[in-house]
Task: inverse folding
């Protein structure tokens, strides 16, 4: 779950990390009031769960109250990277001497957290890693030992080296404290990413976290109850699916897809796409593929509208194909809206023949059996609009 | 021979009295696995089928000589279950549990690594050596004994691929489901190393998906010289960036982890990538034939002759 900047900064502040004085705002009036309180100049910042906001014009430095109102008005109507701007953060302006980058990120490669520091901030770190890896400090943090003092010293030394002169002792101490605070936050709040870009040194030598990017592990929200409600308003269908233990993602095509197993469904989507079809959704009903799960999947897919065909790709492993077939028949009969949509079914694996026989016997006019995934995909594309 | 588990493996089921634990214990037994013990705190002294239940892993190990554990313990308690297994001296721990916090997995994986314990999973279907041992939840009935090693990041898709191999007369040496989480135990490279050394394994099928860099690292390893033919399949070519496709690890983020990049890396390492699961058996046969032909041509390695065929 990605947090908004102001949510992340509230966590930063609670962990003792220095952040600029700021106020969240939901309207242009609230933004102007926040500016009055903080004093001009202020930065008006879009709160949106994606990167690249600065380049997209989502951050404005404003020197007058009118500028604040105008910027707030405009930014609140923006969508950045396909995501709506949810609110604003109004922050006191700072005199910046230097920018750097600091992050702790879950590294799949290292099977644990990785501390990353770049003395040049506000940059594209992925690009820097490719072009000038020597400009980066990257050091894996041992999950059992935690952050070591030498790793903190490495970051402070890299910052001093880049500045050309050793930082004032106070600045170095603040930087070290920021690194430790960020690690504590990462560990205690079950984060998979905590990123400060840029981390700035002000004209007076103070270290301040100018931005925050925090991603919290969805699987750990049960032990972070105060964070659980901070996520974006979910897609209604995705929410209902999650509550029922289905994995469902809304896509923008016209062929509904149901399958058992995430890999199998991904593979089905790929084969549809390769044949020129466009999937309306990703839906994994799980290994068991119970009648209830299939029924909910049907309902969710059809409630989206614009679905011209449905493909059901089931591999019977532990679950027998005949049981899956019974579930499907039950679900189709209980979902009248499915009657007008052709349903192409491919059933393979354990007891698949018995399952196919049941589907034929059921005599549902819109069901058609496919011999393999290739045929399934061809039939669906012909019925959908994509082919 | 096979890898990791064989007919001699003595399996312990952690969480044996739970619904999943009991159900899959029966299936493992039916597949011929030596399930010698189970654990469930506070339920020691009971039996599940003919399997004795103990309160602790240490007690189960000392009474039965179990060497491989399969963990069905709920996500909130899984970290502790993994640590307990490692400290009780088990050699292999297979974690089926889904939805464990990443921090818990990271800590447990680090501890197991230090103890020299092989971890498979979490959020995985387990491992099976057909006809000898099933430690996990794979449907043993679609497998057959043979020479194809399979290592995969997914579950049902793997069963489908294995079913295709079996139907084509290509049995399997060992099949490992490494799991769909971002941090996991054994990966492609570790499994490839073991398959390379395993006499029974003649070819390897690698099943990957979007997210992470496991496939790229496997490609790099194979490019350094792998003695057996490898065929791959990848899922997620059509996945939109930023959307998590079911598995916690299956997500394209910031332009990295795409199926296209993985395909390119594998093909550059000489690994054919099947366009659909149905193509895999054919590619394995072709690769096997080619390797066999190459071996009979004195002085010409597999790699050297590929371009001229």
Result:
């Amino acid at each position: 779950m990605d947090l908004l900047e102001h949510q992340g900064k509230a966590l930063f502040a609670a962990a003792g990390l220095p952040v600029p004085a700021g106020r969240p705002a939901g309207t242009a009036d609230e933004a102007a009031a926040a500016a009055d309180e903080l004093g001009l100049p202020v930065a008006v910042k879009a709160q949106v769960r994606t990167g690249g906001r600065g380049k997209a014009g989502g951050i404005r430095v404003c020197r007058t109250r009118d500028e604040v109102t105008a910027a707030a008005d405009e930014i609140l109507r923006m969508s950045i990277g396909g995501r709506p701007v949810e609110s604003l953060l109004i922050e006191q302006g700072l005199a910046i001497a230097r920018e750097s980058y600091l992050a702790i990120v879950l590294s799949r490669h290292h099977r644990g957290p990785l501390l990353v520091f770049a003395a040049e901030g506000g940059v594209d770190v992925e690009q820097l890693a490719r072009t000038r890896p020597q400009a980066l400090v990257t050091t894996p943090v041992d999950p059992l030992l935690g952050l070591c003092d030498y790793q903190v010293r490495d970051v402070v030394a890299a910052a001093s080296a880049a500045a050309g002169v050793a930082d004032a002792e106070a600045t170095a101490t603040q930087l070290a404290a920021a690194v430790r605070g960020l690690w504590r936050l990462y560990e205690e709040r079950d984060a998979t990413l905590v990123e400060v870009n840029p981390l700035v040194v002000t004209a007076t030598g103070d270290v301040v976290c100018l931005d925050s990017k925090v991603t919290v592990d969805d699987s750990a929200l049960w032990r972070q109850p105060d964070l659980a409600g901070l996520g974006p308003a979910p897609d209604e269908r995705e929410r209902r699916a999650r509550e029922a233990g289905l994995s469902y993602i809304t896509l923008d095509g016209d062929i509904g897809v149901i399958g058992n197993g995430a890999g199998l469904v991904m593979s089905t989507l790929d084969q549809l796409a390769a044949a020129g079809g466009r999937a309306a959704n990703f839906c994994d009903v799980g290994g068991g593929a119970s009648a209830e799960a299939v029924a909910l999947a049907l309902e969710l897919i059809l409630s989206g509208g614009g679905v011209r065909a449905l493909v059901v790709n089931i591999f019977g492993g532990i679950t027998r194909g005949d049981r899956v077939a019974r579930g499907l028949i039950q679900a189709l009969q209980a979902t009248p809206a499915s009657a007008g949509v052709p349903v192409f079914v491919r059933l393979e694996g354990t007891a698949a023949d018995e399952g196919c026989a049941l589907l034929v016997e059921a005599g549902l006019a819109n069901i058609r059996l496919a011999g393999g995934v290739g045929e399934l995909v061809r039939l669906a594309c012909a019925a959908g609009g994509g082919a | 021979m096979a890898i990791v588990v064989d007919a001699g493996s003595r399996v312990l089921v952690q969480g044996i009295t739970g619904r999943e634990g009991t159900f899959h214990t029966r299936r493992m037994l039916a597949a011929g696995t030596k399930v010698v013990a189970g654990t469930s705190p506070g339920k020691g002294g009971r039996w599940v089928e003919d399997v004795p239940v103990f309160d602790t892993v240490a007690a189960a190990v000392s009474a039965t000589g179990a060497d491989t554990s399969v963990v069905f313990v709920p996500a909130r308690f899984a970290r502790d279950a993994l640590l307990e297994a490692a400290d009780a001296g088990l050699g292999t721990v297979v974690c089926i549990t889904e939805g464990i916090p990443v921090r818990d997995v990271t800590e447990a994986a680090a501890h197991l690594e230090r103890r020299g314990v092989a971890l498979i999973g979490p959020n995985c279907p387990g491992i099976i050596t057909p006809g000898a041992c099933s430690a996990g939840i794979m449907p043993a009935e679609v497998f057959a004994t043979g020479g194809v090693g399979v290592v995969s990041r997914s579950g049902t898709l793997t069963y489908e691929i294995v079913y295709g191999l079996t139907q084509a007369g290509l049995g399997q040496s060992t099949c490992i489901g490494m799991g769909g989480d971002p941090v996991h135990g054994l990966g492609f490279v570790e499994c490839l190393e073991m398959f390379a050394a395993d006499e029974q394994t003649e070819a390897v099928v690698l099943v990957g998906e979007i997210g992470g860099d496991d496939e790229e690292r496997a490609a790099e390893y194979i490019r350094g010289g792998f003695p057996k033919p490898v065929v791959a399949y990848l899922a997620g070519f059509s996945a939109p960036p930023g959307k998590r496709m079911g598995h916690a690890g299956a997500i394209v983020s910031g332009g990295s982890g795409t199926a296209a990049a993985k395909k390119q890396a594998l093909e550059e390492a000489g690994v054919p990538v099947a366009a659909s699961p149905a193509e895999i058996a054919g590619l394995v046969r072709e690769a096997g034939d080619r390797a066999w032909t190459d071996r009979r041509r004195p002085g010409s390695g597999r790699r050297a002759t590929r371009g001229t065929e």
About this structure: Chain A has a mean pLDDT of 90. The first strand of chain A starts at residue 22 and ends at 25. The CA atoms of residues 340 and 366 of chain A lie 7 Å apart. The first helix of chain A runs from residue 5 to 14.
